[in-house]
Write a structure and sequence with these properties.
binds guanosine-5'-triphosphate; 6-stranded mixed sheet; alpha/beta; globular; binds magnesium ion; about 40% helix; about 200 residues
C-alpha cells in the first residue's frame, strides 16, 4: 500500500492517524526524504513516499531526481502494489494549480493520479487533506476542479474515490480508513489496523 502526494500535503500525518505508526511528520516540505517502508502484517508493506515536485530549499535537479525515483519505484513494483492513496492538500490545490498553469504546466496532483490510474488500471483513493484550513465552499470548488482535471472517460468516476479529511482534527479519517479496509479486504488482505 503506497501513499503519494506533493511535499507537505500530509502523507505522513495521515499514515500516523490511520495506522498509529510513529512516522516522522514536519512543518516544512521535505520531511520524508526517502522511500520509507513499514511492515503492517506478514504480507503487507506500507510505503510513505517523499513529496514530489518543487520545494523550498531543494534544487530543481534534486526534486527531479526524487520524482524519477518515485516513478521508478511505482513502475518496478506495479505488480505488488495492492492500493495507492494519493494525498492532496485541498487548502492550496487551486493556488498551486494556477501557479503551474501560468508556466504552462498541468497540476502535478492530476498528473500523478493519472499516472497511478495507468499503472494500476484504476484510480487510486484520494485523501483530500487539510479540510480544517478552508471553508466548505472552497473545498467543493477545489474538488470540482480536481475532478475535472483528472476525469477520464475510460475509468470509473474518481469522485467516488475522494475522501475529504483532516489529519489534524481527525475528521473524515474514519471513512478513509473504512475505504482502505474494504479495498484491502476485496483483494484478499486482512485489515492490518483497527477500523471504526
Ligand atoms: N491544518 C492541518 N495541518 C496538517 C494536516 N495534515 C498535516 N498537517 C501539517 O502539515 C505539515 C506536513 O505534514 P506531513 O505529514 O509531514 O506531510 P508530508 O506530506 O508527509 O510531507 P513530506 O514528507 O515533506 O513530503 C505538518 O506540519 C502537519 O502537522 C491537516 O489536516 N490540517
Ligand atoms: Mg512525509
Amino acid at each position: 500500500m503506497v501513499f503519494t502526494g506533493r511535499p507537505n500535503s500530509g502523507k505522513s500525518s495521515i499514515i500516523r492517524e490511520i495506522t498509529g505508526l510513529d512516522v516522522a511528520t514536519g512543518k516544512h516540505p521535505g520531511t520524508t526524504r526517502s522511500i520509507s517502508k513499514y511492515s503492517l502484517s506478514d504480507d503487507l508493506v506500507l510505503v510513505d513516499m517523499p513529496g514530489f515536485g518543487r520545494m523550498m530549499g531543494v534544487s530543481k535537479r534534486l526534486a527531479g531526481r526524487m520524482l524519477n525515483r518515485i516513478i521508478d519505484f511505482l513502475e518496478s513494483n506495479a505488480q505488488d502494489i495492492v492500493l495507492i492513496v494519493h494525498v492532496l492538500d485541498i487548502s492550496t490545490f487551486q493556488e498551486v494549480t494556477r501557479r503551474l498553469e501560468k508556466k504552462g504546466l498541468i497540476s502535478l496532483d492530476a498528473e500523478m493520479v493519472g499516472f497511478h490510474a495507468k499503472t494500476l488500471g484504476e484510480f487510486p483513493l484520494v485523501a483530500a487533506n487539510k479540510i480544517d484550513k478552508v471553508d466548505e465552499k472552497k473545498i467543493k470548488v477545489s474538488l470540482e476542479e480536481f475532478v475535472h482535471l483528472t476525469s477520464d472517460e475510460h475509468l470509473a468516476n474518481i469522485s467516488d474515490r475522494i475522501y475529504p479529511v483532516s489529519a489534524k482534527t481527525g475528521e473524515g479519517i474514519g471513512s478513509l480508513k473504512n475505504a482502505i479496509h474494504e479495498r484491502l479486504a476485496a483483494k484478499g488482505y486482512r485489515t492490518p489496523f483497527r477500523t471504526h
